[in-house]
TrEMBL record:
Binding site for NADPH: 57
Pfam families: F420_oxidored (PF03807), P5CR_dimer (PF14748)
Chief location: cytoplasm
Identification of the protein by name: Pyrroline-5-carboxylate reductase
UniProt entry tagged with the keyword Amino-acid biosynthesis: yes
Alphabetic keyword roster: Amino-acid biosynthesis, Cytoplasm, NADP, Oxidoreductase, Proline biosynthesis
Every Pyrroline-5-carboxylate reductase dimerisation domain range: 164-268
Catalyzed chemical reaction(s): L-proline + NADP(+) = (S)-1-pyrroline-5-carboxylate + NADPH + 2 H(+); L-proline + NAD(+) = (S)-1-pyrroline-5-carboxylate + NADH + 2 H(+)
A GO molecular function held by the record: pyrroline-5-carboxylate reductase activity
HAMAP family assigned: P5C_reductase
One GO cellular component term noted in the UniProt record for this chain: cytoplasm
Length: 277
């Protein structure tokens, strides 16, 4: 792809994951700008990745082709209103904020025909194993589609969603999803230790088992259900463990958890989608 200049506004957790993934995938550090109020975060990014850092958002976006808004949803409206006077037709705006809708972003930017993409990445982008869903407004050109997709594809899977309403479900599944797997990892490790394994042994076994299961599911033509059944010998150990999960309604808990996350995204959109300027 052509080397474009990408400006991140907000240099926190998600920006760091995307920047690390992009640079490991041959994006040039000098074409990556990061602007943040927190100079310590900027210093860390500059020393680790050699990106150009700014404390002035307008300076960071001045010659950028793509501007990625990586601030918290609560900070999004004021950041967009701040950069709006400097907006130019040929720039692409990408928001990764949970919940906040394309219409609200567009209203705050107040620029006729502004090309805007809403994206929901996740932190494994840092190791090029991210999963991102994207959703574009009608002003995004085919070249900008390709640009947004190729940036996110450089850090993992990138899928377009045509119905923006599905972005809340995406946020609940893959945006927040790494945290669910980290929780499972913690729980596996702790349970292993409680059964007498040394901490490092439990950690490594839990990690490799998680990695192996995900890799196997990714590389197999079989469904997760079939792969699970192949581990489960009738009358064996796995069956006993799975019975405990089913009795505890693990599936129901996941449904409740994802529903709660999607509802929170919708709530953020309702609360923060109001104009306050
Ligand atoms: N973390 C994740 O896994 C994911 C997050 N997201 C979305 O990404 C966005 C960022 O999340 P995350 O990285 O976790 O949040 P962080 O709080 O880690 O990062 C946001 C950064 O923006 C800085 N900031 C605040 N105000 C401004 C401003 N006016 N101009 C420039 N920078 C500013 C913050 O500084 P300070 O701390 O000083 O306020 C902070 O360093 C959120 O909208 C979230 O919904 C999406 C997918 C996954
Ligand atoms: O927890 C959050 O709100 C953000 C969005 C998805 C992952 N982290």
């Amino acid at each position: 792809m052509k080397q474009c200049t990408i400006a991140f506004i907000g240099g926190g957790n998600m920006a760091r994951s995307l920047i690390g993934g992009l640079i490991s995938n041959q994006f040039t550090a000098e074409n990556i700008h990061v602007s943040d109020a927190n100079t310590e975060a900027l210093d860390n990014l500059a020393s680790r990745y050699n990106v150009k850092t700014f404390t002035d958002n307008l300076a960071a976006i001045a010659d950028a082709d793509v501007v990625i808004l990586a601030v918290k949803p609560q900070q999004l409206q004021s950041v967009i209103r701040q950069i709006a006077p400097a907006w130019q037709q040929d720039k692409l705006l990408i928001s990764i904020a949970a919940g906040i809708r394309l219409d609200d972003i567009s209203r705050w930017l107040d620029f006729d025909g502004a090309a805007i993409v809403r994206a929901m990445p996740n932190t494994p982008s840092l190791v090029q194993a991210g999963a991102t869903a994207l959703c574009a407004n009608n002003y995004v050109t085919s070249e900008q589609h390709e640009l947004a997709e190729s940036m996110l594809r450089a850090v993992g899977l990138a899928l377009w969603i045509s119905d923006e309403k599905q972005m809340d479900a995406v946020t609940a599944l893959s945006g927040s999803g790494p945290a669910y797997f980290f929780l499972v990892l913690e729980a596996l490790q702790t349970a292993g230790m409680e059964l007498g394994l040394p901490e490092e042994t439990a950690r490594l076994l839990a990690l490799e088992t998680s990695f192996g299961a995900a890799k196997m599911a990714l590389e197999s033509d079989e469904s997760a259900c079939v792969l699970r059944q192949r581990v489960t010998s009738p009358g064996g150990t796995t069956e006993r463990a799975l019975d405990v999960f089913e009795q505890g309604d693990l599936r129901g808990l996941f449904k409740q958890a994802l529903t709660a996350a999607a509802q929170r995204a919708d709530e953020l959109a309702e609360q923060l989608g109001q104009d306050y300027d």
